[in-house]
Structure formats: structure tokens, C-alpha cells
Design goal:
α9 runs antiparallel to α10 and α14 runs parallel beside α16. About 25% of the residues are buried. The chain is elongated. Helices cover about 55% and strands about 0% of the residues. By secondary structure, the protein is mostly helical.
Length: about 450
């Protein structure tokens, strides 16, 4: 125990930390706690700032520098008094000495920018100036106007001279409208020049729309060189090109070549659009010698599952079938069109009305008239003419006169056939005075009655 107390007296700094341990374990070795690094190796005391350092922007602070000696037995503290700190900081609070010279000198103005040094004048002209909208390539007015400008070119000038100016604003398919418009103007050579120029432009060609438009225009004007072996051509050409050729031949009146090309396409199992069949049926139906070909096309069209005809195509086929006497096809086409969810127009109603009148189904025609009135269909002049024929065939004088009055109230001028039908029904009814009134009205309208009508009076 004497040695323990003597060690406590010899090391008073660590007496508190080791006394408990030594009392608990009297026979063990005494373990001294190590000092931290900042105590064993203290930092260098902070020195006052050197003279010449600019502390103008720094806030003066009072610092106390503690210095701890490396020895555990000796510890000294250096404390700066407030007066000393103020005296040192006051040396750096004054104005920074300036270089000798003119203190209130004026700063020179900055040099002008290069773009302001150029002389005034117009800008440098460019080769292609964008004065139009970027969507010009799909503007029909611009493309049709371009066709008119090509038309106004001199005969010795090529179309490329004008097209090169608008090349940056054109895209694929743009010139198809221009080529079609040139075809309507009867300028197939200008259309061919436009196509040849477009072939040399990588941003415009290859394009099927321009090619098909050019082929259709040339075929319509009979300036297309037809290949000798059409079967090889149809096997290599795509569907849109074959349809363009057939359309051009039909519009040009060359229905025989159009039917031949369609037949070859059918043999090679190439299915064309149903509208092509409708146009060819209408073209062949005008010639009585081609009625057999029309019947074959009607059979082919009836076998199609993907039948998709417009109202105009249906009406044209119905008119040809009436001429051929195929009234059943007319009725079936009308019913198919209604079942497809579309509303028939007055032209289609009139065609079916004429079909039932030609088939002498007057009661069915009368039921169709009531259907037209129930659907609030506005009658045109052909509809009034066929309706009056039906009433004359039914010997219904009152309704014939009523529809004749409606015709004039609608602003239509009666035709010679309407006047003649009205005279006939008045003659059959024995109303000669009304017949004479209708004859005078027809003569005032500029019609001269035939001998057969005058003999009935």
C-alpha cells in the first residue's frame, strides 16, 4: 500500500484516473491513459499578420493564442491584450497606397464591335431566299400555280429552268399534283419534262406517286409507249402503276387496251381496286357491242369479298345495268349500299326510281318516292322528271300536277319531256282546256311540239 500512495503523489496529473483501478486491483500493473495527439503535439501558435497584407475587407477580430508546451509538466499561455490587437489591426485599416500618377483618370471607352464598323448597305444576296412557308410542298394552290407557270414558259424553254428555283421547297410526292394539272391542261410533254427533272433530284425520287401520275397523263393522251409483252410488265409492275395505266386508258377512250391489261392482271392473280372495275364498266357500257365484256366484269366484281365502292361508282354501275336490263343487280347494289351504313343521295334514289319505272314496277317506284320524302331528300330536276313519269304511268293526274307545281316552285324549268308527259295525262283525262294551256306554256318556253302531240289535241 505504501508503494501505491507514493505513485499517486509522484504523478498527480493522473491520480484521478488511476486511483480507482489501483484500488480494485492492488496486485496488477498500473496502466496510464495516453494523451490525445493534439495534446502531445500541439499546433504552432498563430502569428500576427505580416506587414503589407491587405486586411481592408476583413473584420478585425480579437484572437487569443494558447501555447501549450510539449512537456506535460510545463504549460504556458500567450494571451494578446485587446489594446495590442487593436494597435496592430489599425495599421491595415487605412487606404491602400496608390501608384504614383493621375488618380482621377478617365477609363477609355471600349472598342466598337466589328459588325458596327461595316458600311451601311444591303445584305449580300443569297442563291435561295426563303420567302415562303416551309409547308409549301403540300399546298395545292402553290403546286397548281407551278403548273400554270410551266404552261406559260416559252416553247424553247425547258421546265427544269423553273423547277430548279423551287427545288428546296419540294418533297416526295409534291409534283404529282403539278403533273396531273399539266395533264388536264393537255401538256403531256411538259409533264414528262417535270418527271425527268424530278428523277435527277435525290430528295424527290424514287417516288411511286410521281411515276403513276406521269404514266396516267401519258396514257390519257395516248403518248405512252405500251410494252409488247404486257404479261411480263404486269408481273414486274406494282399495283398502283397498273391501276394508273388502266385509268389513263379509260379516260383516253382506249377501253380495249384497258380491258386487256385488266384481264392479264387477273390471270396473273393481281387484284386491282374495285373502282377500276366500275370505271371500266362505265366505259364499256357506252358501246352496245361490249355488253358481253361488261357482264364478265360484273361477275368478277360480284365475287369480290373486299367490295369497297363509292357512291359515285355504285350509281354508274347501276346506270349501266339498267341499260343492259340487269335490274336485279341494281336492287342488290342499292341494298348493299344502305346496309353498309351510308345514306343514298338523290342521284342514287333517282337511278333506282328509273330502274323500277323501266321494269314497270310502278307501285314499288311509288313506295320509293314516299321513302325519299320521308328521308327529306331534296329533289332535283331528273328526280321530278322520273316521278312525273311514274304518275303518268299510274294515271294519277292529281299527283302529277302537284309534282309539276313543286318543280316550278323549286325554281326548275320544265323540260320538253315533262311538258309532253303532262299533255298526255291531260289528254287521257279528257281535259283539253288544260292541254291547250300547257301547250301555250311550252311554246312560250321556246319548245315546238311534235306532230304526234298536236294530233292528240
Amino acid at each position: 500500500m505504501d508503494c501505491i500512495f507514493s505513485s499517486i503523489l509522484a504523478y498527480p496529473a493522473i491520480a484521478k484516473s488511476t486511483c480507482v483501478t489501483s484500488m480494485a486491483h492492488p496486485n496488477t500493473r498500473i496502466c496510464y491513459k495516453k494523451l490525445p495527439k493534439n495534446r502531445r503535439y500541439p499546433r504552432r501558435e498563430k502569428l500576427p499578420p505580416d506587414f503589407g497584407v491587405n486586411l481592408f475587407l476583413q473584420k478585425p477580430t480579437i484572437q487569443q493564442v494558447d501555447s501549450i508546451s510539449g512537456d506535460n509538466n510545463d504549460s504556458e499561455k500567450v494571451v494578446w491584450e485587446s489594446d495590442e490587437v487593436e494597435a496592430i489591426s489599425s495599421l491595415f485599416q487605412g487606404r491602400i497606397p496608390q501608384k504614383p500618377g493621375k488618380l482621377d483618370r478617365e477609363r477609355p471607352l471600349p472598342l466598337p464591335f466589328p459588325y458596327k464598323l461595316r458600311p451601311l448597305g444591303l445584305p449580300t444576296p443569297k442563291k435561295h431566299v426563303k420567302l415562303v412557308y416551309p409547308e409549301l410542298y403540300k399546298n395545292p394552290s402553290f403546286l397548281i400555280g407551278l403548273a400554270r407557270e410551266i404552261k406559260d414558259l416559252a416553247s424553247h424553254e425547258h421546265a427544269s429552268a423553273l423547277l430548279s428555283k423551287w427545288a428546296p421547297f419540294l418533297r416526295k410526292g409534291s409534283l404529282s399534283i403539278t403533273i396531273r394539272e399539266l395533264g388536264h391542261m393537255g401538256l403531256p410533254q411538259r409533264a414528262l419534262q417535270t418527271f425527268c427533272w424530278a428523277q435527277k433530284q435525290p430528295q424527290l425520287y424514287p417516288d411511286d406517286r410521281i411515276l403513276c401520275s406521269t404514266v396516267e397523263v401519258l396514257a390519257r393522251n395516248r403518248e405512252l409507249k405500251v410494252p409488247l409483252y404486257l404479261d411480263k410488265f404486269t408481273s414486274l409492275a406494282n399495283r398502283s402503276l397498273i391501276e394508273a395505266m388502266v385509268k389513263g386508258f379509260i379516260k383516253g377512250g382506249n377501253v380495249n387496251l384497258a380491258w386487256k391489261l385488266l384481264s392479264i392482271a387477273k390471270e396473273s392473280k393481281r387484284m386491282l381496286d374495285p373502282s377500276i372495275y366500275a370505271k371500266l364498266i362505265l366505259g364499256l357500257g357506252k358501246n352496245p357491242d361490249k355488253h358481253i365484256l361488261v357482264s364478265g366484269l360484273l361477275d368478277d366484281l360480284g365475287e369480290r369479298d373486299d367490295l369497297n365502292l363509292s357512291q359515285q361508282d355504285c350509281t354508274s354501275i347501276m346506270k349501266v345495268c339498267i341499260r343492259l336490263g340487269n335490274f336485279e343487280i341494281v336492287e342488290s347494289l342499292f341494298n348493299w349500299f344502305k346496309q353498309s351504313g351510308r345514306e343514298p343521295s338523290v342521284v342514287m334514289y333517282t337511278t333506282l326510281l328509273h330502274c323500277r319505272y323501266s321494269e314497270k314496277k310502278y307501285r314499288e317506284a311509288l313506295a320509293l318516292l314516299w321513302e325519299m320524302e320521308a328521308s327529306e331528300c331534296l329533289f332535283d330536276l331528273p328526280a321530278y322528271r322520273v316521278a312525273i313519269k311514274v304518275f303518268v304511268a299510274l294515271n294519277d293526274l292529281s299527283r302529277a300536277v302537284r309534282y309539276f307545281s313543286k318543280l316550278k316552285e323549286a325554281g326548275f324549268s320544265p323540260t320538253y319531256g315533262i311538258y309532253r308527259d303532262l299533255i298526255n295525262i291531260y289528254t287521257v283525262s279528257g281535259r283539253l282546256a288544260k292541254c291547250k294551256d300547257v301547250c301555250k306554256e311550252a311554246e312560250m318556253a321556246g319548245f315546238s311540239l311534235d306532230k304526234h302531240t298536236l294530233s292528240q289535241l
